[in-house]
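Design job #97: recover the sequence.
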């Protein structure tokens, strides 16, 4: 009798093959539903829930995960490339309008506060600050320019290139490089320690810094674009700038270089350990907590196969950061414009 009962409970082959499709269709409906709900709340000026972007983000992850599981089961479902540069196995290009709406909603929910202090040259600011910090850390002009390029990538990775951004998924991280209050304070302390070197190397930039400090006054420094970028770079990335020459040799692809510095933002301790290891791309992460941090930042986050990973090398992590590619390409294009003399 037991084998017979098991046989009765086992789904038919056709039913089992339909499950990935049903799961995907349900996830798609859920994503569409939360998009409509949030749009209706915004358009009617209803109060939004705490962390209004989190439900949107999770619904998007579930939709993409379900689609990846579907294409794993039925590779014939893999369609055409999308303009978002997401691998076709993870995203149905027919859903591009849903992603457009997703981005529009986040732009609204993450709009800077009214008190935020904008810069007319937000991209140039990032490049100039990073290069000046790199020179103060001992880099030559060529490697300091690489620091500027890489840091512009961070700006695009964190906010899509939008200055003074809020954060619809966190009550802690804010501003042009998405730092917390303690990180901003730490960056300010570190900046004060090298301000004299900066002034000697670049008096004009130091003068601009004095003006921005006075302008910010008692404002949360994360909402003055200049001070937000300055303090964020000093907090987490400036100490890595002296290693840029070695990083450029280990990772000749400019986008890989940007990805590595973004990992300083996401998983700083393991990334520093990888840099010290002598085998950057082969360094393996096996800590379950670190893997969760990666997944929470759209790395190994989509589909059962990716989520089942218990470890990864840095080469595998860099390759899995494909969702960042479009932003880093934007940063590279903007950097070339700056170097060609176009303000911005």
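Job complete. Output follows.
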């Amino acid at each position: 009798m037991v084998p017979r009962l098991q046989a009765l409970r086992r789904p038919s082959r056709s039913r089992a093959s339909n499950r990935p499709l049903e799961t995907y269709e349900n996830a798609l409906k859920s994503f569409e539903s939360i998009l409509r709900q949030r749009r209706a709340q915004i358009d009617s000026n209803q109060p939004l829930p705490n962390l209004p972007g989190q439900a949107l983000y999770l619904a998007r992850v579930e939709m993409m995960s379900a689609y990846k599981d579907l294409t794993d089961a039925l590779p014939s479902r893999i369609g055409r490339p999308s303009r978002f540069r997401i691998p076709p196995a993870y995203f149905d290009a027919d859903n591009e309008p849903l992603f457009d709406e997703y981005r529009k909603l986040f732009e609204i929910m993450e709009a800077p506060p009214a008190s935020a202090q904008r810069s007319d040259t937000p991209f140039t600011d990032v490049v100039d600050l990073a290069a000046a910090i790199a020179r103060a850390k001992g880099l030559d002009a060529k490697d300091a320019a690489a620091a500027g390029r890489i840091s512009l990538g961070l700006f695009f990775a964190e906010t899509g290139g939008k200055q003074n951004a809020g954060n619809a998924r966190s009550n802690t991280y804010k501003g042009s490089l998405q730092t917390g209050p303690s990180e901003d304070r730490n960056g300010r302390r570190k900046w004060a320690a090298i301000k004299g070197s900066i002034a000697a190397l670049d008096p004009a930039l130091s003068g601009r810094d004095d003006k921005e400090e006075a302008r910010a006054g008692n404002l949360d420094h994360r909402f003055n674009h200049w001070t937000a970028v300055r303090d964020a770079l000093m907090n987490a990335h400036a100490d890595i700038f002296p290693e840029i020459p070695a990083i450029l040799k280990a990772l000749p692809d400019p986008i890989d270089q940007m990805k590595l510095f973004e990992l300083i933002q996401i998983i700083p301790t393991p990334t520093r350990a990888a840099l010290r290891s002598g085998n950057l791309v082969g360094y393996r992460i096996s800590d379950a907590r670190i893997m969760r941090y990666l997944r929470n930042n759209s790395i190994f986050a989509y589909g059962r196969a990716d989520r089942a990973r218990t470890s990864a090398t840095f080469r595998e992590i860099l390759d899995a950061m494909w969702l960042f590619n479009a932003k880093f390409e934007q940063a590279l294009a903007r950097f070339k414009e700056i170097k060609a003399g176009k303000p911005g």
